[in-house]
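User: hey, got a sec? need Phosphoglucomutase folded
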Amino acid sequence: MASARSSVAIDSPHVLIIEPGSLSASRNPTTRKEIEQLHQDKNYDALADRLCQRIKFGTAGLRAHMSAGFSRMNDVTVIQASQGLATYLIKDIPKATQQGIVVGHDHRHNSERFARLAVTAFLRKGFKCYLLDGPVATPMVPFGVKYVGAAAGVMVTASHNPAADNGYKLCVEELMIHRTKEIQDAYFNAIAGLVKHSRVENSKTALKFVYTPMHGVGYPFATKACIEIAGFPDHAWLPVQAQKNPDPDFPTVKFPNPEEKGALDMAMSLGKEILEKDHDQKVMIIANDPDADRFCAAEWSGSKWTTFSGDQIGAVFACWTLENYKKSGNVSGKASRLFAQIARQEGFKFRETLTGFKNLGNAALNLEKEGYKVLFAYEEALGYMFQTGIFDKDGIAATIVWAELATELAGRGSSVADYLETIYQKSVHFYLLLAIFLFCLQGSMCRQDQIPRLAFGEQSAGEIVEQDSRSVMLGQLRFPRTLAGYPITRIRDLTIAYDDSYPPQCVPDLPSSSDEMITFYFGGHGGEVIATLRTSGTESWKLKYYVEGSAQDQVTAQNKVDQIVEAIGEEWGFSNL
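Assistant: Yep! Here you go:
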């Protein structure tokens, strides 16, 4: 690959300087050949894309396509990231080398190779390394960091991204030490504390749980948690056989993300087979993403499947936690306002952070230091944290809690959908939550055009934001003031650290975000609608927006949300790209 000296002109045609010997950073013949071929083909746009920008940390660390270049996941970027991390730890943490680093990996192509390259880089810097044997669930790494007192942890995974991607997730708080079984045993002992019912009670569950790990690593972990620890019977735990075992090609799903349309199709088919044999059987679908740190669920309502959104699951977990513990919770910058209202009504502490568990985990840790007992945190992207000592999302912990709450509700003759309805009824208004995902053919389309032009119109947002004077930047803003007949009562743009509810400088109470993220508040017409638009921190080609509406009745809330969603697509251009 090219050296850091490689450069590209702003105007086309590109000028790319690749000096003799500058490919020496890469000793992998496959990636070297990619760059050499692009150079021979004079494909300068592709070379500039790969060599003239570096892969950046998002909400879940590094994540990119596996191919040659400094903007991709490959041997060189993994080694360089590891060298940089080692240097940082040595500088900032006393005795970091003695504390060591925990390293794990999932089942994806090159994951084990990248993990071993990272370990090699750490060893050369003098660190002890705890390399977890074989593919593991992501929550094992942050738990391992705490358990062995390591300086940091690294998990090689791209979570729910497509098969061609990989990633490098960072967890901060003899030379090669193998303690996988010990760490796993301690982890399961920790999540056993989440089990509230006796094994006898759980063994009598009226539910059939259809489980899919999305071709990932979750099956043995979720199965042990639910059957061995919680005591659910084998006959109630039914994995989707075609998706049960790790497969780095994810052959049955286009995107191995439980959020995506169609991701749960095979689980629903298995659920239908169960229902055809017994129409009265209660069926719950449980899904983890491939590295098992996210969780999703769907429930048969008697006529159709109800797939719960991230915010809905968060509300259920939060209220269940409040009912059982009567303590505080901690949620994300795009968590539902419904949870904020319920927390206030019940007299609990509510704190909002930016999206991503690097923010949520740090906020939870700081609250613990202040003397609070943090019981729950969540973000809308199916990430949930419970009181297990892991300040990160954990899909296995979510699975065991959900199975228990669903079992208890079924025992009352109720369902999760019924429980969610009672949550809505407790709030002052009816809330409707809707998540929409748009796909860009190129990530740059999402990042450089779609969202910034809402703030700056057709001007060059990049040039304006870089102005030294904040007053100059504020004067250049061109935010819309109405949409679909609804007045916009508040705008918060965390990309440029702007919130018009804090004049005159309009500095928000949340820190700025490395990813584009704008929230619009719409008033009038008997309620409020809130729309948050943001680029994905883990999938550069994806843009997300979330719309939630409140009204005195469901029909009004639905109409309000539908109008805003339609207008976001038609007036602002946020239709599928």
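Quick note: The CA atoms of residues 76 and 302 lie 53 Å apart. Let me know if you need anything else on Phosphoglucomutase.
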